[in-house]
Amino acid sequence: MTTTTCYSVKILSAFNTFQTTFSSAATRLSFVGAREQLKPPRAVTSSTEIEVLQKGIAELYDESSGLWEDIWGEHMHHGYYDPDSNVSIKDHRLAQIRMVEESLAFAYGSAEPAEIPKKIVDVGCGIGGSSRYLVRKYGAQCQGITLSPIQAQRAQALAAAQGLSDKVSFQVGDALNQPFPDGEFDLVWSMESGEHMPNKKKFVSELARVAAPGATIILVTWCHRILSPSEESLRPDEKKLLDRICDAYYLPAWCSASDYVKLMESLSLQDIKTADWSENVAPFWPAVIESALTWKGFTSLLRSGWKTIRGALVMPLMIEGYKKDLIKFSIITCRKPA
């Protein structure tokens, strides 16, 4: 049994106790009755359904972003680890920065791009951790969009506190209808927001539209496994597991990395590359669960709201999905033709 596996077993055992205790507390606080009201639509097709989904996403991050920042810092995404590594909370924050660097190196094929990006867009920017990091790294201008007004405000406040107000700006915006002109950016960055997109074709089309000729597009996102040639869909038990995760995190239907590749090919994007980094993010969810088991994490969850609580209660399902090779942490990069 690997170090990471042993660690996960211990954390999950402790979390089972946490779930029992928390579910009881939630019932007494009348949160459980709100579950069906807050359940997001899974088959998202109409404009009304998309609005309901996006409202839920915005409210989830309005509720949870402060808690996340307080415990994990300004980067709201997985960390990148060496396989079977044993790490502390401090190491996890460093691993989140490493995720940014590894993503850049994968896309550009080296530590530094041949041409330094001057204008960057961060699609699904959270509280702006990636945006500010990229601005400092490249001396570029960056614009970030998020559905959450609280995130946009906090991202801008952090930029001001770090002396970056003239370099980076944030606004509420829809990734499926970005508020930018065609060909505006030479680096299009999306770190763990694609899973929230109800129309993956429109999402990728928008990434390509705002990219300048020759621009690099970096998409890091949650996917499901690639289907075999004999399969038409995931198995019923796999769909059931993903549905439970979707309900908690306001996610529409999932797709595979190969589906993203096909979408990029249909837009004549070039140098398309993809990799499965699931093994490299293995320590992340056990660590998030561990942080929820602390007194600070527990009491902060109680104050945060039901959407955040519900997300916390299904965290073990993410670990289960990774262990079953159902959930894949994927990077897909490409270049717009010059």
From TrEMBL:
InterPro entries: Methyltransf_11, PiNMT-like, SAM-dependent_MTases_sf. Residues 120-129 are annotated as: SAM motif I. GO terms for molecular function: S-adenosylmethionine-dependent methyltransferase activity. Residues 121-218 form the Methyltransferase type domain. The keyword S-adenosyl-L-methionine applies. Residues 183-191 are annotated as: SAM motif II. Pathway: Alkaloid biosynthesis. One of its GO terms (biological process) is methylation. Residues 210-219 are annotated as: SAM motif III. Keywords: Alkaloid metabolism, Methyltransferase, S-adenosyl-L-methionine, Transferase. SUPFAM superfamilies: S-adenosyl-L-methionine-dependent methyltransferases (SSF53335). Homodimer. Belongs to the class I-like SAM-binding methyltransferase superfamily. gTMT family. This is Gamma-tocopherol methyl transferase. It comes from Heracleum sosnowskyi.
